[in-house]
Amino acid sequence: MKRRSSLIFILLLLVLGFLPIQVSAATKDELRQGMRKLWEDHITWTRLYIVSATADLPDKDATAKRLLQNQTDIGNAIKPFYGDAAGDKLTALLKDHILIAHHRCRQERRYGEKR
Questions:
Q1: In angstroms, rounded to a whole number, what is the distance separating the alpha carbons of residues 102 and 113?
Q2: In 3D, which of 59, 37, 49, 44 has the Cα closest to residue 101?
Q3: How many domains does the chain have?
Q4: Distance separating alpha carbons of residues 91 and 36, to the nearest angstrom
Q5: What's the average model confidence in pLDDT over 33-61?
Q6: Other residues' Cβ atoms within 10 Å of the Cβ of residue 108
Q7: How far apart are the first and last CA of the chain?
Q8: Cα–Cα distance for residue pair 50/108, rounded to 1 Å
């Protein structure tokens, strides 16, 4: 639970722009637009994965792989601004978040099959 709280806190700081970064206005705008696209992808791939996993569709593994790649992409996007260690940590936290949701979807599907 502590890891989840840390992840949410870091993400909020990133999204709301409270973490200080010293870059030009053009680079800040590029970062903002890039992060916006990555988070839109996160939403899209998360939804697709939940649908595929809960319905046990054949594309669930490919969708999970793409969703996990999105987490790496988000971590890589912050590396030029916050360093490799911060990007790797964010990637690890996001992947952990996704894997927890993956296990939860599996549990829900098993529970639904038992009823």
A1: 17
A2: 49
A3: 1
A4: 16
A5: 91
A6: 13
A7: 29
A8: 11
Q: What DSSP letter does each residue of the chain carry, written as one string?
A: -HHHHHHHHHHHHHHHT-S-----HHHHHHHHHHHHHHHHHHHHHHHHHHHHHHTT-TTHHHHHHHHHHHHHHHHHHHHHHH-HHHHHHHHHHHHHHHHHHHHHHHHHHHHHHH-
For 91, the domain range is 2-114
Torsion over CA of 110, 111, 113 and 115, rounded to 10 degrees? 170
Structure tokens at 75: 């971590």
| Tokens 């973490």 found at | 19
User: pLDDT per residue over 19-45, tens digit each?
Assistant: 555 555 557 788 888 899 999 999 999
What pTM does this model have?
A: 0.71
CA dihedral 55, 40, 17, 73 (to 10 degrees): 80
